[in-house]
Specification:
seven-stranded parallel sheet, Rossmann fold, 32 helices, Arc Repressor Mutant, subunit A, binds adenosine-5'-diphosphate, globular
Length: 735
């Protein structure tokens, strides 16, 4: 089917033709035949890189040309940025007819307690499912104007963490905008038809791929495919390294999936010594530039570790990396400078980073309850599916590694020839339901128990299960919400002011209950930073650090020494709860170090985490501290006077990772906590002091480039031009 033949505005067709896309891929053509451009709901369950995004684009552009508005829901922030960048390329396309301006794209990933009303003027809005849920809770008005919803990675309905939110959000959107077109995009899963049915959509199910994918198993020097075999030369002791070197020799790149962060780092190191031997001079030079960038953007030992690998043409990638390093590694790989990335499976789910060959070094993953367990077929397929870059590689290959003939046949049976599992709604548990029941009532989607049942009947859970079993859980949730003052009434369910606030803050009602209870118990005169940090670290919205064997004694001593600082008496050390308590305190100590300006290097070493983790903890802590401040204002306004300034200050300190004396300086755009500390300790303690100083002094402290930006930011442009120098000021923004 030709792009030109589609019922789309001329400008859209021209856009695609100009980018070299003339003919639709078969699954895309099937979607058109099934009513994609006529507003029909649709589930496209097709492999990665088979043109799912483009398929969604066609539907969105068609809707926009008819005066509609599209919402594109993704599971991860990183994906939101990727899609945002892609859709922004349409800005020059006059989809809405000549004279109506180009297409406008917005991205909504910010604070949870905001409506982002300003985004309403956009034609496409990209948001994560959690952000979409929070926009609905905050009753953002443009939500009702949405005419097309795209749900990316809809198979994540199966995820215990995020599935329920996605499911409830979609149910609410379907109720709010009954005529809205829904395009769901999914990996190929066993029961795709069931999701399509739930969405009242047509199903496009296909294994078609633009680049041929061969899936094989390595054993004793050969990669075995169905019907063929490939010999791999033994250049080192390590099978995976040999497979990798073979790929490089053919001019390809490799993704290696490992079971843990530690393994991904050690593989990148190990492979590096061999990969380095294959690099030509221009590549080495390009890699040296990346190394410099890595060092510039790192504050920890991990930066040196990554830099060492990258110098050799390899890299590791996992959630512990800071965002700058992640971007450098991804871009460096896309530009074919970095030849191999070894990663935890997050990359397979997250980013569009294909490679000629994918090596799955471990098909087992650690489960806290059951130890090392084989991964699901769906996860294997997601990883294998990364093999083969469309338009760039002639083919893609994925390789599992076996130690014995039996293991190899098992891998063929259980992965390569197996179908992906069915996906199952995870909405049925009290933990998942509590928050969604509250928001459903707050937003008026249900006002009685029967109404709630009716709402639940519309979910994917009810599509797969009888709902009688869930009503007990629903009643438990209702009781919980009543006991904790978030809900009133038996026949008519009425949210209280507290219930409304908890819902819009986007915290778990259990977190809300812990915080409210803690604030009531806390005696204003005894409250320290630790009191409040421990309070938020105790909530289910905070992810707690693991306790390592070496932590027990240290944390135990800290709990004893600081026992007055907690709002509750710590459980006795023999009690089961004590283990949890220690993990909460350990997490609070990490945030405490962060706001007391301990260096990232110190924090990452002390707590055994990466820079990316510290930022992730700080992000959650900031949101929970903000919630604490709002809740304090509500439940105890008289106490709030004392406490709210403390909480508000803590919220800021967590945001910047700084002590209170630095807040004025770190609030200046582009001045991080390290530079602010240098200025402060040298006597430049306030904005006024900097203004009264001169660029030479400031340059000595924080470097000439940042000093210039700082002066510019403070509107001191005259101070930037030493008389007669004619030195122009670049108007770049600070970041
Ligand atoms: P997915 O979302 O499934 O990963 P994309 O829509 O991003 O896939 O497509 C993957 C690549 O294939 C992109 O570079 C895209 O431009 C290209 N592509 C998609 N559809 C076509 C087509 N019909 N013809 C040529 N290239 C296409």
């Amino acid at each position: 089917m030709k792009i030109e033949s589609l019922d789309l505005p001329e400008s859209v067709i021209r856009f695609y033709l100009d980018s070299g896309i003339e003919e639709l891929y078969p699954p895309q053509a099937e979607a058109i035949e099934k009513g994609l451009l006529e507003g029909k709901n649709l589930l496209a369950a097709i492999p990665t890189a088979s043109g799912k995004t483009l398929l969604a684009e066609l539907a969105m552009l068609k809707a926009i040309s008819n005066g509609g508005k599209a919402l594109y829901i993704v599971p991860l922030r990183a994906l939101a940025s990727e899609k945002f960048d892609r859709f922004r390329t349409f800005s020059s396309v006059s989809v809405k007819g000549e004279g109506n301006g180009g297409l406008r794209v917005g991205i909504s990933t910010g604070d949870f307690e905001s409506r982002d009303e300003w985004l309403g003027s956009n034609d496409i809005i990209v948001a994560t499912s959690e952000k979409t849920d929070s926009l609905l809770r905050n009753e953002t008005s443009w939500m009702q104007e949405i005419t097309t919803i795209v749900v990316d990675e809809v198979h994540l309905l199966d995820s215990a963490n995020r599935g329920p939110t996605l499911e409830v959000t979609l149910t609410k959107l379907m109720k709010l905008n009954p005529g809205c077109q829904i395009i769901a995009l999914s990996a190929t899963v066993g029961n795709a038809y069931e999701i399509a049915d739930w969405l009242k959509g047509k199903l496009v199910l296909s294994e078609w791929r633009p680049t041929r994918l061969q899936e094989g198993v390595y054993l004793n020097g050969n990669i075995n495919f169905h019907g063929s075999q490939k010999r791999i030369e033994a250049r080192s002791q390590d099978d995976a390294v040999n497979i990798l070197l073979d790929t490089l020799e053919e001019g390809g790149q490799c993704l290696v999936f490992e079971s843990s962060r530690k393994n991904s780092v050690s593989f990148a190191k190990r492979a590096g010594t061999k990969v380095a031997e294959t690099l030509d001079k221009p590549t080495r030079k390009a890699l040296d530039e990346l190394v410099e960038e890595i060092i510039e953007n790192g504050e920890t030992e991990a930066a040196n570790e990554l830099a060492k690998c990258v110098r050799n043409g390899t890299a590791f990638h996992h959630a512990g990396l800071n965002s700058a390093h992640r971007r450098i590694v991804e871009d460096g790989f896309r530009a074919n400078k970095i030849k191999v990335i070894s990663s935890t499976p997050t990359l397979a789910a997250g980013l569009n980073l294909p490679a000629r060959r994918v090596i799955i070094r471990s098909y087992r993953r650690y489960d806290p309850n059951y130890g090392m367990q084989p991964i699901p077929v769906l996860d294997y397929k997601q990883m294998a599916g990364r093999a083969g870059r469309p338009h760039l590689d002639p083919y893609g290959e994925s390789v599992l590694i076996a130690k014995s003939y039996n293991e190899m046949t098992g891998l063929f049976d259980n992965y390569i020839d197996a179908d992906a599992e069915d996906i199952w709604s995870k909405l049925g548990s009290e933990n998942a339901l509590r928050t969604h029941i509250l928001s459903t009532i707050v937003n008026g989607f249900a006002t009685t128990r029967d109404g709630l049942l009716e709402f639940i009947e519309a979910t994917f859970f009810a599509h797969q299960n009888d709902t009688w079993g869930i009503m007990d859980v629903v009643d438990e949730c209702l009781d919980f919400l009543r006991i904790h003052g978030m809900l009133e009434g038996e026949d008519t369910l009425l949210p209280t002011v507290l219930g409304r606030l908890v819902s819009t803050l986007y915290i778990d009602p259990l977190s809300g209950a812990y915080i409210v209870d803690g604030l009531k118990k806390a005696k204003a005169e005894n409250i320290t930073d630790m009191t409040l940090l421990h309070l938020i670290c105790k909530t289910p919205d905070m992810r707690q650090l693991y306790m390592r064997a070496s932590d027990y004694e240290v944390i135990n001593d800290i709990i004893m020494a600081r026992s007055d600082e907690f709002v509750e008496i710590p459980p006795r050390s023999k009690e089961v709860d004590y283990e949890w308590f220690m993990a909460e305190v350990k997490t609070a100590l990490l945030v405490e170090d962060w706001i007391n300006e301990k260096s990232l290097d110190q924090i990452t070493k002390k707590f055994g985490v990466g820079e990316g983790d510290v930022h992730a903890f700080a992000d959650i802590a900031e949101w929970l501290m903000h919630s604490t401040s709002r809740l304090a204002g509500l439940i105890a306004p008289e106490m709030a006077k004392d406490i709210s300034s403390h909480v508000a200050l803590l919220e800021k300190r967590i945001h910047y990772g700084a002590s209170s004396d630095l807040i004025e300086l770190v609030s200046i755009r582009g001045i991080g906590r390290v530079r602010a500390r240098k200025l402060y300790d040298s006597g430049l303690k306030t904005v006024q002091a900097i203004k009264s100083s001169d660029i030479g002094t400031v340059s000595e402290l924080i470097g000439p480039k940042t000093a210039r930006k700082l002066f510019e930011e403070l509107g001191l442009t005259s101070g930037l031009r030493p008389s007669g120098s004619g030195d122009g000021i670049k108007s770049e923004t600070m970041s």
